[in-house]
Amino acid sequence: MGPHPAVAAARRAVRECLGGLAPDDLILVACSGGADSLALAAAAAFEAPRAGLRAGGVVIDHGLQDGSAQIASRVAATMTGLGLDPALSIAVEVARPPRSGPEAAARAARYSALDGAARATGAAAILLGHTLDDQAETVLLGLARGSGARSLAGMASRSGFYLRPLLGLRRAQARAACEALGLCPWDDPQNEDVSFTRVRVRNELVPALETALGPGVAEALARTAALLRADADALDDLAAAEAARILAADAAGGPPASASGASLPVPADAQPGWPVEALAPLPPAVRHRILRTAALAAGCPAGALAERHVASLDQLVIQWRGQRWIDLPGGIRAQRRYGRLLFTTGRSEGQGGRE
Predict the structure, then answer these.
(1) Number of helical H runs and strand E runs in the chain
(2) How far apart are alpha carbons 303 and 253 in whole angstroms?
(3) pLDDT in the model for residue 265
(4) The model scores a pTM over 0.85
(5) According to the model, what pLDDT value does residue 256 have?
(6) Distances from the Cα of 85 to the Cαs of 38, 47, 76, 210, in angstroms?
């Protein structure tokens, strides 16, 4: 007899995501001890050696609960028992910056620690235990915020060296895999704390949608995310190509030439700002992407830069009425002067919108 269907599904998902890694590469599983990441750790421990890879694990102790260090130690021991080597336990300090909620602050600390673990061990990839249910919740949260296509596209199966093999599996499958393997997950009490928005979405909104619309809501939301991700990727590529074309033409002082590229360029120091007359004719979806990336490159924090900021930048381009400037997050100021959109740091008094 073969493995339990849930175990087989988790192993198959991990096996499929490991393609492209080189022999003897090290992968690390980010394991909290919950059912999702524990099922992932077990699947990776089984599949990695068969693919000629080494598999380790890392647990992050956020220090937000009593006994968190002991919990992290038990998770590390469980990973060792599964055959993961190294099995790291890393304690972090969660500092909450202004305008950042506790979830965002913990996430930032966690990913910083995971990045450090990858550098320290030379890991080629870090596996994350997000499931289809997590994907559906992410889409609903994006809808509630009024976010654009990129946010509604949810989590990618691959983001740099981060891999999410279980995005096609339900949370219940991960728990069933743990039960079949005799593993005892740790249920984080914060996952039932209704002060967290995601917990309310998980425990109240998704069940309400399934009651009203029938089963299959989570799968439908995940499919929507996949479709929107493809659209968002195409628009990002188009925006990168248009930005390169604009900057090349501006530097040469001649008509635009075709250009392409997946990474959106920004003006060099010797060529400040963006020519407004080249931005204005672009489709709004492309122009907004260029403006957002330009603001981020100027120093605006990604988590604080909202759509309303990008819309205000767009008004400087297509609805010019002599506005002076726009103050953006991170101490960045944007203004239109002499036909160019300029980004500067600080709150120094600038000239009005002289054309």
Answers:
(1) 13, 10
(2) 36
(3) 60
(4) no
(5) 46
(6) 15, 14, 10, 41
Kindly report the CATH number that applies to the domain delimited by 5-227: 3.40.50.620
Using alpha carbons, select from 239, 215, 189 the residue that is nearest to residue 67. Answer: 189
Residue 313: predicted pLDDT: 94
- What is the per-residue burial (b if ≥16 Cβ within 10 Å, else e) of 286-295? bbbbbbbbbb
How much is the pLDDT for 262?
46
What's the pLDDT score for residue 353?
A: 47
Asked if residues 170 and 206 have their Cβ atoms less than 8 Å apart, the reply is no
Nearest 10 degrees: Cα torsion 102, 220, 19, 16:
110
- Whether the Cβ atoms of residue 30 and residue 126 lie closer than 8 Å to each other: yes
Calculate the alpha carbon distances from 239 to 146, 263, 293 in Å: 21, 9, 10
From residue 341, give the alpha-carbon distance in Å to each of 90, 263, 280, 322, 327.
44, 20, 11, 13, 13
CA distances from 93 to 60, 90, 162 (A): 10, 10, 22
Q: Point out the residues of the chain with pLDDT beneath 50.
A: 255-262, 269-271, 348-354
CA distance 132 to 17: 15
Q: What residue type is assigned to position 314 of the chain?
A: D
In this prediction, residue 258 carries a pLDDT of 39
pLDDT of residue 184: 94
CA distances from 258 to 45, 212, 249 (A): 48, 50, 9
The DSSP-derived string for 9-73 is HHHHHHHHHTTTPPTT-EEEEE--SSHHHHHHHHHHHHHHHHTT-EEEEEEEE---STTHHHHHH
